[in-house]
Amino acid sequence: MRMNSFGRIFRVNTFGESHGLAVGCVVDGCPAGLKVSEQDIQGELERRRPGQSELTTSRAELDRVRVLSGLYHGRTLGTPIALVVENEDRDSSKYREIGYKPRPGHADLTWKLKFGHVDPRGGGRASARETVGRVAAGAIAKKLLAKYKVCVVAYTKQVGKVESGETLDSSMKGVTDLIESNPVRALDVSAAKAMAEEVVKAKKAGDSVGGVIECVALNVPEGLGEPVFDKLTAELAKAVMSIPGTRGVEFGQGFESVSLLGSQSIDEYFYEAGKVSSKNNYAAGIQGGISNGMPIVLRVAFKPTASISKRQHTVDLNLKKNTYLQVGGRHDPCIVPRAVPVVEAMVNMVLADHMMISGKIPRRI
Amino acid sequence: MRMNSFGRIFRVNTFGESHGLAVGCVVDGCPAGLKVSEQDIQGELERRRPGQSELTTSRAELDRVRVLSGLYHGRTLGTPIALVVENEDRDSSKYREIGYKPRPGHADLTWKLKFGHVDPRGGGRASARETVGRVAAGAIAKKLLAKYKVCVVAYTKQVGKVESGETLDSSMKGVTDLIESNPVRALDVSAAKAMAEEVVKAKKAGDSVGGVIECVALNVPEGLGEPVFDKLTAELAKAVMSIPGTRGVEFGQGFESVSLLGSQSIDEYFYEAGKVSSKNNYAAGIQGGISNGMPIVLRVAFKPTASISKRQHTVDLNLKKNTYLQVGGRHDPCIVPRAVPVVEAMVNMVLADHMMISGKIPRRI
Amino acid sequence: MRMNSFGRIFRVNTFGESHGLAVGCVVDGCPAGLKVSEQDIQGELERRRPGQSELTTSRAELDRVRVLSGLYHGRTLGTPIALVVENEDRDSSKYREIGYKPRPGHADLTWKLKFGHVDPRGGGRASARETVGRVAAGAIAKKLLAKYKVCVVAYTKQVGKVESGETLDSSMKGVTDLIESNPVRALDVSAAKAMAEEVVKAKKAGDSVGGVIECVALNVPEGLGEPVFDKLTAELAKAVMSIPGTRGVEFGQGFESVSLLGSQSIDEYFYEAGKVSSKNNYAAGIQGGISNGMPIVLRVAFKPTASISKRQHTVDLNLKKNTYLQVGGRHDPCIVPRAVPVVEAMVNMVLADHMMISGKIPRRI
Amino acid sequence: MRMNSFGRIFRVNTFGESHGLAVGCVVDGCPAGLKVSEQDIQGELERRRPGQSELTTSRAELDRVRVLSGLYHGRTLGTPIALVVENEDRDSSKYREIGYKPRPGHADLTWKLKFGHVDPRGGGRASARETVGRVAAGAIAKKLLAKYKVCVVAYTKQVGKVESGETLDSSMKGVTDLIESNPVRALDVSAAKAMAEEVVKAKKAGDSVGGVIECVALNVPEGLGEPVFDKLTAELAKAVMSIPGTRGVEFGQGFESVSLLGSQSIDEYFYEAGKVSSKNNYAAGIQGGISNGMPIVLRVAFKPTASISKRQHTVDLNLKKNTYLQVGGRHDPCIVPRAVPVVEAMVNMVLADHMMISGKIPRRI
Q1: pLDDT for the residue B58
Q2: Which chain B residue lies closest to A199 (C-alpha atoms)?
């Protein structure tokens, strides 16, 4: 059983409610000897942090991470790394009603049905604030992978109806700066402006909008992924589908492959510089669930955020009658820009884990 | 680590190579006291079996299951249930070349890269024949769920460019017969004919075609799914994405939700006959990763099968040079019709497991 | 893989080095709705805390626990419970040599061989200070079990050559006070004095002494334990043998049963007040790995602590030559009195977990 | 949850009831490329097989193993290895009463309480016949370890009151032949005769007798075992304590260490031929839960077998009254000689698993 933990060897256990004392995680199984600094983790948290632009929630959180264990003289010990981020802006006055008036589109009702006793403040553990722990853990996975040249980059591919055709190419330089240079985190800077407008438009209408994040993993070695149930596609699918707000995932040609012929989607093999290669990478780096050394490409669909300002029908669980709710609190009209580092974190965690499972990364480096 | 096993409490370990002595599985954790007969399992295997129509491979396998343990007087003992299906048609003469000439689009190359020593006969363990074990195990999960009124139905939603708009509605009668009445296993019988033609056309061209399978789970109780990593969406996504040939999965409005507004995708709540309900089930039965009691709807994209008769470029790993391959052997021009029971099996396994994890099904019934 | 985590459903992940910032744990899988206070946890930590008497180390630690998550209005949420104890007395000046002069009898050398990069301060993660996390987690397990009348009591049975014949009987009153009333935590108060003298004598000689802890679990319901590998005996054996300094474990008649005849060790059955019962409980509450409702009795052997003041031979790993070490630092001449709550914690964790695995405790209470 | 499976990477799932169609196992996670023959497995099964001498049960089983998957051209594929042994002598006429008259000292009653529906024939899954699967799996682990020079040898150390002082020394030659040369499998051939007499004496009296098995693992590399819960001692303790009939386990000086002083039980370090070594190996090869390269020594206590011919008190669960039972069926007056290969199998499984967990054995060899 895993519940709040993820991974086999590189294993992460997150904790924390949105308006509790703290959120964080314990990373177990990271090899000994890896150079990691608090700044490595802080840097990733900054990207997820609220209040970065007018497109995101105004909740004021500095999200300062504190490393309680697992590091000594700047290197991992091979022991559990406990990371804690205290919640500072815990004003939950706006959330009082949630305890008995579940917000439509949120997890309030299902959590109540499942657990009975819940923390309504800011959505409690069901809040996307739990992804702080994922991003912190992902930062360590990223650092570990970087030592082996594996590099994971995610970016916004679509916001509402605005789509961008561009996909990351391994030859591109400075992509990270490019992506961080615009508030929606698009790779395609020309589309970024229209995407931002889509968000602003929704926000003004008291509404919200969804989007697609594309994620590319470069320099992944051959042989990751375990037949038959733990295929790399299956593992990645689970990882990203555990992120709040996701509705679908696809690899390479994805749903479009359905209407193609086999001859239009099979990667034929050729020797190229002594290595077996294919021309089109239709398989997006994974064949039969095992990585083949080419870039892995996946896309994740996020629905429009459930927190909208419009008045909505809901029920009063105490009075057992229909009522209305106008959700206050601080929220994002589009979660996609802030979900980009979360997608990266999950993919980094899966790849770090499978690098260790396959023995490509030893227990001590 | 799991590799060839799946599930937490209701746990399945499959085994077997395509042209080895047998394929099968061990089901561990099934409650004691459940009525199961060999025929229950055999019935599901018949649906997956090759040679059912001109749309499928001509490999001759009767797929007779043998129950080695775990049943006594027609009831489960709560001990491991070992299920074995001997491979009868093991003519692998057509597969000799595969050992050094990997078939494009197949897992031959990545398995070779990962394991070094492989069984080339019929693709060995990478063959979709491993799904025999899944279907056998799924039959037991189905029987277990039936006792609790949970019912999972899958059907072909799209083949190639032919799509059907129809989705299973809980009020429908006789759907199983309807689906089994046409060789593509479509719910929409009028579309079924065009779908079949799409397959035949591809087959005649020595090519292949993909498709989409939709799966609906009815009467799933509230409260299944574990935050935060083992959300029901995440678990189901992994389950179906571990099936050979899959390229994507989506829930409810899926990728389409991206271009909708929040107000078009949020399920508002109302009391209906004393129960909290929503009108549209946009969330497709799962909110915040936890089931809400409404029908769960998911769709899985299958790429065109990799086995086509056309001559393809590949490499000779012995001579280390480019060459061609014309794949012999018996294969399906479209895997979708036979994948329908496999999708059902995986969804049944996930739901049975989560029914037990959540305590809705006890260890002894 | 588990490493620093323990349990299946009721699962604990501990973290922290002896002289790092903090030690602690995350408890995942505890049911929602359980009343737990910080004081419940603090109370158990007090029993493990150093500096309780002249028999224990003089390290000054208040061991104040802080609950970062998982509780709301005094009840568990069903979400991870993060517990942190900051290390206050971090004077590690005495431990500098350990980095290259491994202490005989300690884990210094094997950790160095395994991880390469280690934290020598106070033994780092290999210090028995890691058991703070176990005791904190065990306190929650204890609270959970108490709700179901299950009660676990451990006490010192032997110190050095001083053995006590007394075993806890379910009819005894006030046993906890009795045990806590003497510094060795013996049930047999008359033997306690001689035991304490044994410790003092060893301490004065710059030496150390071992002991046996007996642990009794009362009111354990029938049916706990999973055949065939996860027998309750096997699970308990692993749990207690993971405690630092243990050398053996036995159940009921234990090693003595070897020289008995079957007829002297088989519990014959009789009806007693409508329930099947036995007279002698030779099986110590577990038959075929499954609890039978009678008291569970186990004994754990602790070797003499490895930290003695006597000068010892060791090696200098830098200079690669033989040398001597006179261990400074603060340590216990006999770990047994402080290990009593640790044994209880581990047994509580196993029983809580198996109560949940077997469905005797639901996910929400 | 694991129930009938054991191990993390090298993982074994056993199945089968004593008088069902078959017993066996699936070994998952064994590296690809290992040479294994059916004879390697059969050889170990012969040692466990009933009917080897007058000291063991007369049940007639040839225990022929059949390898259903995972091997190709005499080498492992890295895929699951399914091993099946059909039960031939299924005469269960003697066991009819067990269904409602539980045998004292057996698991009949606790299984009934736990599972409700049980297979009474020969004890069903609770019979020690389930160890066939363990021994078959252990044979593969043994083969794998042999490639890395790791060698595990177990032998009978005590039967009833007859104890032998001899312990395996790494310099001994031909120990396996020595052990197999006498029916009790003692290392000490002079003691073997007295041990055999102890068994015969008990048998004649319609009684049974227990014993101690000692197990030594040679050439185990440094660094196996995972802090803090998966210490090598803890893992081995669980492994052997899952064997039917066990009552205790101890390592090295074990329970005797309790009455020693620290200075009598601490291994001081010295350089010996450039390697850090100790003189006495008091720690028995494991320090702080991690192997140090020296021989691992453990002892397992087996109680007298529960099947005795004497008439015993028991209850009639149908009539709900006290009654008597005189157990028929075929059984061993002392299980120890046949348990020797089972102890070896479990230790081999743990070591193979930890060799893989620590990366000492890769996924492909």
Answers
A1: 67
A2: B261
Helix (H) or strand (E) holding B177: helix B175-180
Q: What angle do CA A359, A361, B1 make, to 5 degrees?
A: 50
Strand boundaries in chain C, DSSP class E? 5-6, 11-16, 22-28, 65-67, 71-72, 75-76, 81-86, 151-159, 162-163, 211-218, 246-251, 269-272, 275-278, 286-287, 290-291, 296-302, 312-316, 321-325
Identify the residue among D2, D9, D290 best suited for mutation to test binding to A, counting A beta carbons within 10 A and taking the highest: D9
- In the predicted structure, residue D109 carries a pLDDT above the cut 80: yes
What is the CA angle C177-C180-C181, rounded to 5? 80
Using DSSP bridges, classify how beta strands D162-163 and D151-159 pair: parallel, antiparallel or unpaired. antiparallel
Residue B43 class from Cβ within 10 Å (0-12 exposed, 13-18 middle, 19+ buried)?
middle
pLDDT of residue B173: 79
Best residue in B14, B15, B127 to probe D by mutation, most D CBs within 10 Å?
Answer: B15
pLDDT reported for residue A254:
98
Using an 8 Å Cβ cutoff, are A151 and A143 in contact? no
Flag whether pLDDT at C359 surpasses 80.
yes
Structural domains of chain B, ranges and CATH numbers in brackets: 5-357 (3.60.150.10)
Crossing angle of helices B131-146 and B336-357, rounded to 10°? 50
- What number of other Cβ atoms are within 10 A of residue A122's Cβ? 26
C3, C9, C11, C224, best to mutate vs chain B, most B CBs in 10 Å: C9
**Crossing angle (nearest 10°) for helices A131-146 and A336-357:** 50
pLDDT in tens, B295-339: 999 999 999 999 898 899 999 999 999 999 987 656 789 999 999
CA atoms within 13 A on the CB side of D295: 22
The nearest CA of chain A is from the CA of B354 a distance in Å of 10
**CA atoms of C51 and C38, how far apart (whole Å):** 21
Measured between CA atoms, the residue of chain A closest to residue B208 is A262
Residue A225 gets the label, from left (phi > 0), alpha (psi -120 to 50) or beta, of left
C226 with D231: CB under 8 angstroms?
A: no
Closest partner residue to A70 (CB to CB) among C15, C32, C70 is C15
* C264: three-class secondary structure by DSSP: helix
CB neighbourhood size of B324 (10 A): 11
Longest dimension (CA), chain D: 72
Contact indicator for A329, A306 with CB cutoff of 8 Å: no
Which residue of B lies nearest to D69 if distances are taken between CA atoms?
B16
Closest approach of D1 to chain A, Cα-based (Å)? 7
Q: Cβ A117–C1 below 8 Å, yes or no?
A: no
Rounded distance between C-alpha atoms, residue A311 and residue A308, angstroms: 8
Nearest to D269 among C104, C223, C266 (CB): C104
User: Could you tell me how far CA D220 lies from the centroid of its own chain?
Assistant: 19
Q: Is the pTM of this model over 0.95?
A: yes
The reported pLDDT for the residue numbered D96 is 76
Q: What is the pLDDT of residues D75-99, one digit of tens each?
A: 999 999 999 999 987 777 777 788 8
How far, in Å, CA of C269 to CA of D86, rounded?
34
Return the closest-CA partner of residue D81 out of D92, D66, D70.
Answer: D70
**SS3 category, B109:** helix
Q: Concatenated DSSP letters for A191-239?
A: HHHHHHHHHHHHHHTT--B-EEEEEEEESPPTT-SBTTTB-HHHHHHHH
Which residues in chain D have Cβ-Cβ distances shorter than 8 Å to A79? 227
Chain A residues closer than 8 Å to B18 by CB: none
- CA-nearest residue to B29 within chain D is D3
Half-sphere exposure of A330 (CA within 13 A, CB side): 18
CB B326 within 8 A of CB B296: no
